[in-house]
Design brief:
This protein is α/β, with parallel strands linked by helices. The chain has a single domain, classed as YbaK/aminoacyl-tRNA synthetase-associated domain (YbaK protein, Alpha-Beta Complex), CATH 3.90.960. It contains 5 helices and 8 strands, in the order H-E-H-E-E-H-E-H-E-E-E-H-E. It is globular and about 45 Å long. GO terms for molecular function: aminoacyl-tRNA deacylase activity. It comes from Xenorhabdus hominickii. This is Prolyl-tRNA editing protein ProX.
Length: 164
């Protein structure tokens, strides 16, 4: 198993770009709702990262798709928006190789050349700060939303499930 240096990479990146953020150590939470309560943040402030494999139309790409934690991803829409026809969640092995993190601890930043970063625009519309696990289930970063957008530069792709 590779040493998890994601937290150090994140804080170095944020410090280099003079981001406004704070680090929070906490107990491991299970679901997003539990983690939001532990952090003292709104559920929608959580930046949930899903590692997806997009295929079809001669397109093959791993995507780190980020959306608010109170939303659900529409993987069919995601695939079509980026040029594929189908999408699936990556396996735990693929997630580990591409992010050096376990499920639930993936920050909304890509440090791997084969992992494209996209974010749903709603992530930037409701809250001044985003919260996310920082490479560990016991450590979070709460980051200014504008700083996240400026530093991570995700491609904006609307892929959340719309209410019926």
């Amino acid at each position: 198993m590779l040493k998890n240096d994601i937290f150090e990479r994140l804080t170095t990146l944020l410090d280099t770009h003079h981001a406004c953020y704070r680090v929070m150590e906490h107990t491991t939470g299970g679901r997003s709702e539990e983690v939001a309560k532990i952090r003292g943040t709104h559920l929608g402030q959580g930046a949930k990262g899903l590692v997806c494999h997009i295929k079809g139309n001669a397109y093959r790409q791993y995507i780190l798709a980020v959306l608010p934690a109170d939303q659900q991803a529409d993987l069919v829409t995601l695939a079509k928006q980026v040029g594929g026809t189908r999408a699936s969640l990556a396996s735990p092995k693929e997630v580990s190789e591409l992010t050096r993190c376990v499920f639930g601890a993936i920050p909304p930043f890509s440090f791997h050349p084969h992992l494209k970063l996209v974010a749903d625009p709603l992530l930037f519309e409701r809250y001044n700060e985003l919260a996310f696990n920082a490479g560990s289930l016991e450590r979070s970063i709460i980051l200014n939303t504008g700083d996240y957008c400026r530093i991570a530069k995700p491609e904006l792709v609307a892929f959340r499930k719309m209410p019926d």
